[in-house]
Amino acid sequence: MARITIKARLDAIVTRAKAEANRGQALLYRLRVGAARRWPEIIAVIFIAAFMASLAPMVLFATPVARALGGDNAVEPVADLLLQMGAALIGATTIAFTLVMFAMQVNVERMPYGLFRRFSADPQLMGAFGLTFLLSISIAAASVVRSAPLVPWLLFGLAWATLTILGLFLVAYRRALKLISPAEQLGFVVRSAQRDLAWWDRRAALAARRHSLKDAPPDSDRDHSRIAFFLANRGWTKVASKAVEHAVAYARRYAEAGDYEVCLVALNGVVAIHRSYIRAKGLSFVPTSPFFEMPEIEDGFLTHSLEELRQYVDVALARADERQVRLALEAFAVLCGHYAAVDYGRPQVMTHAHLALGYLTGAVQSVIPHGMTDVVMAGARYIGEASRGMIARDGAVDATSGIEALGAIGQAMTGKSDARAAAQVAIGQIATITSLLLLSPPHRARLALHSTVEAVMRVSHAVLALRVPALGRVHSTTVAAYFGLTSVDGLLARLTEYTNGTFDERADQPRVAAYAEALLEWVEVLRERLKGLLLSSVMMQSSLTFDLVAWIAQIAEVLLAVATADHCPEGSRRGLEREGIRLGQLFTWLPEERLMVEHADQSRVTEQLFEMIVMARRRDSDRAVVDFGRILLGWAFKAGTAGQSWSVLQRALVGLAALSLKPDGPYDPNALKLAVLDQISNRAGAQSIYDETAHRLRHDPVRSSSLDAIGSVAEDVSADQLGTLLREIADLLSPPSAAETIRVE
Fold first, then answer.
1. According to the 3-state scheme, what is the secondary structure of 179-193?
2. d(CA 620, CA 539)
C-alpha cells in the first residue's frame, strides 16, 4: 500500500510539473505572438528609451568632449560635416520616397481605381516622408551654429537624427510593402467600412438618447428611434457598399490570376462588413408583413452585396473556374447564416436570410448546366447548412425554398451518370433537414416537412426513371440516406435514436409531445406519396423495392414505439398507432401481376409483414397485431393466386399458424381457419396452387418454410400442435382423399 501511495504521489507531482510547463510554454507563445504583432511599438519604445538614456552622459561629459575636439578649431569641420550630411540625406530622402511612390503607382492595375488615390496618400507613408525631410533639413541648417561648446551636442544630434532617418526609411519601406499587399489593401478597405458603420451606430444611439419617439409602442421590442434615424439617413451605408464593391472586385481580379487565397480574404472581408452592418442595425430589423408595405424592411445594402456576388458567380461560370464559384457559394451560405441570427423580436419570417438563401439556391442551380459536379455537391451542402441554421432559429417556414432547391438539384443531377453523387448529397441533406424538423415546433415545421416529402419524392421518381441493369443498386444507393437501412447518418438511424430518447426517464415531456406531433404530421404527408413510390418501384422491378419494404416496416415500428412512450399525449398516441397501421396497409396496394408479385416476394414483403406482427406484439398494440395479420393473410393469398406462388402462401400460413398458437397472436386457431376459408371463397380458380400448398403443409412444413423470423417462431411452439393446425388448414385448401377425414374444431 505504501508503494502504491508513493507512486501515486510521484505521478501527481509529475502531472503538476507537466501542467506548469505547458502553461509556461503557452505564456511564452502568447508573448512571442504578441511581440510579433506589435514590433513597431516595441522598437519605438526601445529607441526612445535609448535616446533618453544617452542624454545623461552628454550632460555630464559635454564640456570635456568639447575640449577634446579642439575647442574653436572643431567648429568649422563640424559645420562642414553637418552641411554635407544634411544635403546627402535630403537627396537620399528624395530618391527613396520617389522609388517608394513609383512602386505604389506600378501596382495601380492591381487595385480598383477608387482606392489608388487613398493608398497613394497614406498618412503614415506621407508622415514618414515629411519627418525624414524635416530632419535632413534640420541637419543642414545646424551647420550655421558656430559655438564651440555646442559642438558635442551638434554631433550628438547628427548621430541620432541619422539613426532616426534610417529607421524612418525602414518604416516607409515596410509600409509600402503592406500597401502593395492585396491582403493589407483589403484590410484597409474593410476596416474603413467597419469604422464608418460603427460611427453611424454611435450617431444612432446618440440620436435615440436625445430624441426619443413619443408615439413608439411602449411594449415594442423594436428600436423605433434607430429605425427612424436610418430612414432619415438613407445613405448611411454608402461607404460600406463601396467597400463591398472593392472587395468583390479584388476577388474577381485575383481569381483570374489564380490567387485564390486573396479571393478568400476578399470574400471574408465582405462577410466581416456585413457583421458590422448587422451590429449597427441592432434591433431595427423589421420582419415582413403580408398586409401592408413597410419601407423599414427595404435593405438595399444586402441586395447590393448579393447582386455583386451573383455577378461574381456569373463571371466565374463564364471562365469555368470551379474554385472561384465554390468560394462565392460559401460566401452566400455564410451571409445566410449571419442573417438567420438576426433578432426580429418574435418568431417571424426571416426576410434577409431568406433573400440570401434565394441567391444561394439560384447560384447553385445555375452551376448545374456547366457540368461542375463537385461544385454542385458543395453547393448542396451549403444549402443544407443554411437551411438547418434557419430551422434551428425557428425559421423553418423560410427554409422551404432551400429544401425545394435541394429536390430540384437532386432531380437534375440524377439523370447524369457521372453526377449522381451530387444527387446523393442532396438526398442526404434532405434527410438531415427532415430529422431536424422532427425536433422543431410542429406548428412552425409543418410546411417545411411537406417540402421535404415533396423534394425526396421528386428525386426518388427521377431515380426510378433511370434504366439500369436488373442486378444494379443505383436506385438504392442514390436515395440511401433517406430510405437506406444501414447508414449510420441516415434518416432511419436518427429516428431510432430520437425514439429511444423518448423512453428515457429524464426526457422532457413537452419535447416528447412535440416530437410525437411532428412525427405524426410527417407520416400523414408521407404516406400517400410513399404508396405511389412503392408501386412505381414494384412495377419497374427496381432494387429500391427491397429498401422501401424494410423502411416502411421500420418506420411503422418507430410510430408504434413512440405511441407507447410515457410522455406521449393520448391524442398523438392514437394517431401514431393509426398511421403505423396505415403504413402496413400500403402493402395491400401491391399489384397482382405475376412478375411484380415475384419481385415483391424477393423483396421480403412476406417476412417484413410477419415481423411487423411480431413487432406490434412487442409494442403491445393489439389493434396493429390484428390488422397486420389480416394484411399478411391477404397478401399471401394474393401472391399465391395472382402470382402463382405457392411458396408465399405456404410461408405466410406457417407463420400465422405459429403465431395463433401463442397466447397473444393475431388469431386463435379457429379464427385463423375461418379467415382462411373466407380468403378461399373470395379467390376461387387457383385450386392448383391450393393443392400444391396443401401438399407441402402436410409434409414437413416447418423445414420447407424460410429460415428467418417465420422459422424461428415456428420452432418456438409445439411441433405437434403446429403440425395438426397446418394439416387442418391444408384440408381447407385442398380436401383430403376419401380415406382421410376433415375435422374442423
1. HHCHHHHHHHHHHHH
2. 35
C-alpha dihedral (263, 266, 271, 276), degrees to nearest 10 = 170
Element (H, E) at 38: none
- Cell 476578399: give the residue: 266
- 724 exposed, middle or buried (CB, 10 Å; 0-12, 13-18, 19+)? middle
Encode pLDDT of 209-268 as tens digits: 776 655 555 545 666 777 777 787 788 888 899 999 989 988 898 888 888 888 999 999
Q: How deeply is 480 buried, as exposed, middle or buried, from its count of CB atoms within 10 A (0-12, 13-18, 19+)?
A: buried
Cα(467)–Cα(323) distance, integer angstroms: 33
Q: How remote is the C-alpha of 206 from its chain's centroid?
A: 39
Phi/psi of residue 301, each to 5°? -65, -45
**Residues 193/198/201/206 CA torsion (nearest 10 deg):** -130
Q: How far, in Å, CA of 519 to CA of 442, rounded?
A: 9
The rounded distance, in Å, linking the Cα atoms of 137 and 144 is 12
Q: Which region holds residue 441: left if phi is over 0, alpha if psi is between -120 and 50, else beta?
A: beta
Query: Does the model's pTM come out above 0.85?
Result: no
pLDDT at 593: 84
What SS3 class is residue 395?
Answer: coil
Nearest-angstrom CA–CA distance, 553 and 584: 7
Closest alpha carbon to 362 in 323, 310, 325, 407: 310
